[in-house]
Amino acid sequence: MKVLASMLDNMKAISMFIADFDRTITDRDLKIDESCISMIAELRGRGIHTSLVTGRKQTFMEIFLERYQGVFESIICENGCRAYLNNDWHALAESNCHTLVIEKFSEAGIEFDYGECIVSTEALSESEVASLLSDISGWRSIVNVDSIMILPPGIDKGTGIRWLQSMGGFSKEKTAGIGDGENDMVMRELCGVFGTPASAVSSLKDVADFVSSEEYSKGTRDFLGFLITNYSLPMKGSHKI
User: Fold this and answer.
1) Cβ(52)–Cβ(132) under 8 Å?
2) Which residues fall within 8 angstroms of residue 232, CB to CB, at 6 or more apart?
3) Domain 14-92+155-232 classified CATH 3.40.50.1000?
4) How far apart are CA 80 and CA 95, in angstroms?
5) Rounded to two decimals, what is the model's pTM?
6) Which of 80, 132, 171, 233 has the smallest number of CB atoms closer than 10 Å to its CB?
């Protein structure tokens, strides 16, 4: 476990916790870790704003929110294109050309998935996706561990995090986050304290404040334990779920 010594000089406060979804609150096989969910629920019970920031589709996250009511106050999904806050969904990106991108992949006979705004594939490399989309202005691809996500112009997870921070008045310094993939690098830039599980990509671990010796969701539980032990949190029961 790596921890920056400067973080332990004094107790700090956090007001928001954000986490990636796949391989962060799930195990390697993408099974949700109920113990991890319980620890996040404890943070929310103490008055911490809890959120997920994921590339998953809005339809998937709607089902997830129904199952885990009261645990997460907000969701950023489709890699920053869509957000859930105050019991409502918000569009953070225009989906212009979304249909055209889908048509391109369909005509090429490539396996892909898509949401309200995002398109993703495990069948192509970044360069192959770029070639396919060469005549669609602004749309770009980003690596997410074993898949490629195709996004509207100027959109990434940071789009959703900045929106959420501005809506809730949360500063970077009081935001804690954890992720594991290349598309989580922008999360590091927007968090005062950032952790990764041992299973995260090397480039992300290199810039993290906390790198767990545990993999996947166990690493997130390790990080949550670190926050609970070393950061100033409101008393239990101070926030009504």
Assistant:
1) no
2) 11, 12, 13, 14
3) yes
4) 12
5) 0.87
6) 171
Phi, psi torsion values for 206, nearest 5 degrees: -65, -25
Mean pLDDT for 54-67 is 96
DSSP helix/strand/coil, 18: strand
User: Each residue of 19-38: pLDDT tens digit?
Assistant: 999 999 999 999 999 999 99
Question: Cα 161 vs. chain centroid, distance in angstroms?
Answer: 9
Tens digits of per-residue pLDDT, 85-100? 999 999 999 877 889 9
Q: For residue 18, give the amino acid letter.
A: I
Break the chain into its structural domains and give their ranges.
14-92+155-232, 98-151
Residue type at 96? N
Strands 2-3 vs 210-211: parallel, antiparallel or unpaired: antiparallel
Tell whether the model's pLDDT for residue 7 goes beyond 70: no
Classify residue 123 as exposed, middle or buried by CB count within 10 Å of its CB (0-12, 13-18, 19+). middle
Enter the tokens of residue 218.
């166990």
Q: Which two tokens stand for residue 202?
A: 């090397």
